[in-house]
Amino acid sequence: MSLYKLFARLKARQTRGGAWVQLFLNIGIITANIALFSEWFDHHGISTTSLLIVAPVVYVIGTIAIGYFDERRGIWQHELEFSSNLNPVMRDIQDRLKSLQERL
Question: In the prediction, which pLDDT does 64 show?
Fold first, then answer.
């Protein structure tokens, strides 16, 4: 295996792992903020315990819903298309594919 492929594989693994760590960190940040503002929530009649249960679930469901919307509307695909246009290798591959499609 070449050194480039090894680094690419390590970077892909780090990116996926980083996304999982970010999920858990975000849940921790949400719960820490609830604990920080617990007096304010209690003053308004909102139980801190119920918020500690509901808020992370709402966060996870919300992020899944945003991902689903993004999957259906294709915003992520447009982002990848734009990013690939900045990459000379991907731009070359896209140009070759377009020329092949024109021949057919």
Answer: 93
d(CA 55, CA 50): 8
Q: What's the token pair of residue 76?
A: 């992520």
Distance CA 38, CA 80 (A): 41
What mean pLDDT is reported for the chain?
Answer: 88
Tell me the pLDDT tens digit for each residue of 36-69.
Answer: 999 999 999 999 999 999 999 999 999 999 989 8
Yes or no: say if 71 and 77 are a contact pair by the CB < 8 Å rule.
no
Residue 16: CA atoms inside 13 Å, Cβ hemisphere, count? 5
Every domain of the chain and the residues it spans: 1-73, 74-104
Q: What phi-psi label fits residue 45: left (phi over 0), alpha (psi between -120 and 50 degrees) or beta? A: left
CB 92 within 8 Å of CB 71: no
Chain-centre distance of CA 58, in angstroms? Answer: 16
